[in-house]
Amino acid sequence: MRRASAPTSPTADGERVLILSAGVGSGHNSAAAALQQACRARSDIAEVLVMDVLQESSTLYRDLLGKGYFALVEAAPWLVDLGYDVSDPPFRRRGPIDPWTRANAMPTISEIKRFRPTAIVCTHFLPAQLVASLIQRGVIDAKTAVVTTDYDFQGLWLTSAFHSLFVAREEGRVQLMALGLPADRVTVTGIPIAPPEEHAPVRDPATPPALLISAGAAGGDYATAVVRQTMHIRSPFTATVVCGRNTELRQRIEQLVTPAGDRFRVLGYTTEMPRLIREADLFVGKPGGLSASECMAAGLPMVLVNPIPGQEVRNGDYLMEQGAAVRCNTPATIGWKIDEVLREPGRLQRMQAAAQRIGRPDAAHDVLNGLLDGSARPLVVTRAAQKSILATSEQRLIASDVTGPTSLVRLIDQESGSTVALLQAEEVVDLQRRYSDSAGNVVLQQDDSRAPFRWEARRVLRSVLRGDERLAVRLEPLAEGASRSVEAH
Questions:
Q1: Terminus of the chain with fewer CB atoms < 10 Å: N or C?
Q2: How confident is the model at residue 8 (pLDDT cuts 50, 70, 90)?
Q3: Which parts of the sequence belong to the Diacylglycerol glucosyltransferase N-terminal domain (predicted)?
């Protein structure tokens, strides 16, 4: 079992934080490690545990999700692109977790029960979906956060129950609010990264610009072609090429750049990437969510090459939109593209300023602050509401455009002001019939009645009440049509 648990305070009754990730690529685990480091800096957290849920599953399941994904990236990128688009609509899949996934999740569930967390942070959608089901079944009573690890929000991350959802940029928050998610449950923090060095190195303006080329992430043949083309750059520069654990690639590139003398430095796997990022002037590589976030936090602009279809292409679109990156769609022009950036007066400096502007070095701390200081009650999205959100997305509408019985209504805790449930307007009929008092107020209560509900009352009540006997709520329709429907009952 791959885990890292460390007491961070002698206080026995502090927070117990569980961080769940999935090792599909390195980004999700890197975000988990950054959050773990941020936990250790807080005196109110007694213990933190990090788990890679794939390491707890069967070898077959782990290989299909991990190795299988990257095999498709290499052999059929168009299929990866299609898969991203197919899984993008929010709540396309509703209902319980499939039996195979549930079977592979049993060791993780056992570990959750053993650890008894007071807070859970998910840096991958797989554990996020699992945790949502545990909340609604009453298995856990912990504050839960979903932390996205790319700049564009993908609908696959949206779950049926959570306390806080943290996204990388404001557009993601606007997107979720347009679908009906409440503003008090969605926060823009950026993507959690390890804290950068406090003092950035002072660059000598007389020295040539320093390139940092991430060759290991770009793939063998493609990476070699990229490095070969940088040798044709006419502007003065130096370059550090990082090949990761690919020893064969490192040897090939070392041989390739020998004629360039000391202009190139070739490294294998290194733990010094944060320092290299701080010392570089321009990054050349793929726009993974974590890599891009680390670069932006350091004010390091990017030349994007060979992005994975789907999330990395969308990451690149955002960085270019903000003026912090350029993209090269073919290795044959990479040298010319970099030369264009270096030769135009002031362009590199403008790109560096843009990167610095959108960087969020404190994202990990902001996630913990938002979760631990946030609502103690989860937000529950009923299956009927999930259906409405999916239909809204597919019809290119926003939630306030939808009227009638399928429009959305929020249940808001009258005491705290936080939204505790999202449901369809037609579900409100049973809700008001059962829980309205003589003054017309809606007060949710524990209900042991065996009478069937038209909506998922038992799951919602169990999640929202959290053991309390009563909870006064107010109804907030998202559209005028829904308002008339609610008032009519």
A1: N
A2: very low
A3: 28-193
Which residue did the predictor score with more confidence, 168 or 105?
A: 168
In whole angstroms, what is the distance from residue 420 CA to residue 380 CA?
Answer: 6
- Tokens describing residue 178: 């347009």
Environment class of residue 201 by beta-carbon count within 10 Å: exposed (0-12), middle (13-18) or buried (19+)?
exposed
Q: Which two tokens stand for residue 387?
A: 């259906």
Query: Token digits for 66?
Result: 């991990």
**pLDDT attached to residue 36:** 96
pLDDT digits (tens, 9 = 90+) for 235-250: 999 999 999 888 889 9
- CA 319 – CA 323 distance, rounded (Å): 6
Cβ atoms of 39 and 8 closer than 8 Å: yes
The CATH architecture that domain 3-195+363-372 belongs to is 3-Layer(aba) Sandwich (3.40)
Residues in the chain: 489
pLDDT digits (tens, 9 = 90+) for 289-315: 999 999 999 999 999 998 989 999 999
Q: Quickly tell me which residue has 């040539």 as its tokens.
A: 208
pLDDT score of 455: 60
DSSP one-letter string for 4-47: EEEE--S-TTSEEEEEEE--SSSHHHHHHHHHHHHHHT-TTEEE
67-82: burial string, b at 16+ Cβ within 10 Å, e else: eeeeebbeeeeeebee
In the chain, the largest separation of any two C-alpha atoms, in whole Å, equals 87
CB neighbours of 134 closer than 8 A, spacing ≥ 6?
109, 112, 140
DSSP H or E segment with residue 239:
strand 238-242
- In the chain, where the domains are located: 3-195+363-372, 210-358, 379-488
Mean pLDDT rounded to a whole number for the chain: 88
- The percent helix, strand, coil of the chain (3-state, each to 5) is 45, 20, 35
Query: In the sheet where 379-381 sits, what is the strand order?
Result: 161-162, 379-381, 419-424, 408-413, 470-477, 442-445
In the predicted structure, residue 45 carries a pLDDT above the cut 50: yes
Which of the four CATH numbers 3.60.10.10, 3.40.50.410, 3.40.50.2000, 3.40.710.10 does domain 210-358 have?
3.40.50.2000
Provide the Cα torsion 162, 163, 168, 174; round to 10°. 90
Residue 488 has pLDDT above 50, yes or no: no
At 445, is the secondary structure helix, strand, or coil?
strand
Residue among 229, 254, 232, 255 nearest 241 (CA): 254
